[in-house]
Design a protein that fits this description.
Elements: E1 6-12, H1 16-27, E2 35-39, H2 46-53, E3 58-60, H3 69-75, E4 82-87, E5 90-92, H4 96-106, E6 110-119, E7 124-125, H5 128-133, E8 156-159, H6 160-166, H7 179-188, E9 192-203, H8 211-229, H9 232-245, H10 250-261, H11 263-269, H12 275-288
Parallel strand pairs: 1-2, 1-4, 2-3, 6-9
Antiparallel strand pairs: 4-8, 5-9, 6-7, 6-8
Length: about 300
């Protein structure tokens, strides 16, 4: 069942045990996908362990933590039509990469396919799966699953050329809710995003994470996306909604301060989305107030 259509890209930082488990799972896939790992400046021997135990993996060592831009760096080396992302604490199920590639082959206007996320070690659905299944975004009748307004990088296969044309992940956003901006730009380029319930990826969350920093970046990046791409009134409404609902703590204050400090950059880079894309995002606004994705915000 070797499948030459998809390359898997993984970014990592100081999570050697989790990464080695993930690479072991990927090495056992029947698709036998090429794998590219960007080691974002690990100091725990990650790169040496990968080189020793997985010599077939393409290992990139930029020498510093690039955040999500480490994926951009890896995609430069991708030669397949599709690229699958996963984190160092997640791994694709056998057959799911081939299934995603089949959908992308079958539907030329489909830009990305997001899989069902299974939380390990319990084997239960991630709470966000329910939201993906019930997405309020309307899609064309040919779409093989619910239309999405965004995607989860750790569980998505994309067209390589579409990713590159849209510019990949923004260096400014770094990491934490960074997908929203790229997803909107993909939609603006005419691509549809979908959820496929029959495809799966496993996620066993690493304990090695800074939840406070991730939340700060999540709030800041949500504000930046809103100001960069939404019309004035929806942007103002979402900004005020965030100000009312995020925790009243130092992390939230820092997020708003960082976002505001970059207003000159925002004004230079601001590009409002096409009307048809904005109309889809407006349908998502009410659901986002209680979304599981707000784990990056609240």
């Amino acid at each position: 069942m070797t499948d030459p259509r998809t390359t898997v890209v993984v970014i990592t930082h100081n999570r050697r045990p989790e990464l080695l488990r993930t690479l072991g799972e990927l090495a056992g896939l029947p698709e036998e996908p090429p794998v590219v790992v960007t080691d974002n400046g690990s100091t725990d021997g990650t790169a040496e362990a990968v080189a020793r135990r997985h010599p077939d993996v393409r290992l990139l060592r930029p020498g510093r933590n690039l955040g999500a831009v480490g994926r951009n760096l890896a995609v430069r080396d991708v030669r397949t039509p599709y690229v699958a992302f996963c984190d160092d604490d997640s791994w694709w199920s056998p057959g799911s990469l081939a299934g995603a590639a089949d959908l992308l082959d079958r539907h030329p206007a489909l830009g990305s396919v997001t899989a069902r996320i299974i939380v390990e070690p319990d084997g239960t659905d991630d709470p966000i799966v329910r939201e993906l299944r019930a997405s309020p975004v309307p899609g064309p009748p040919w779409l093989p699953g619910p239309a999405l307004g965004s995607f989860l990088a750790a569980a998505t296969v994309l067209r390589t050329d579409a990713f590159r044309t849209a510019g990949g992940f923004s260096p400014r956003l770094w990491l934490g809710g960074e997908e929203e901006l790229l997803a909107a730009d993909l939609a603006a380029d005419g691509w549809w995003l979908t959820y496929a319930d029959h495809l799966t990826i496993h996620h066993q969350a690493s304990a090695a994470r800074d939840a406070t920093l991730r939340r700060t970046h999540g709030i800041r990046n949500t504000l930046w996306f809103t100001w960069l791409r939404r019309p004035v009134r929806p942007a103002l409404r979402r900004t005020l909604d965030l100000a009312r609902t995020v925790p009243r703590d130092t992390a939230s204050l820092r997020a708003f301060a960082e976002a505001a400090a970059a207003l000159p950059w925002v004004l230079r880079e601001r590009r409002v989305l096409p009307r048809q894309v904005e109309s889809r995002l407006r349908l998502l606004d009410p659901a986002q107030r209680t979304s599981t994705a707000r784990r990056y915000l609240g």
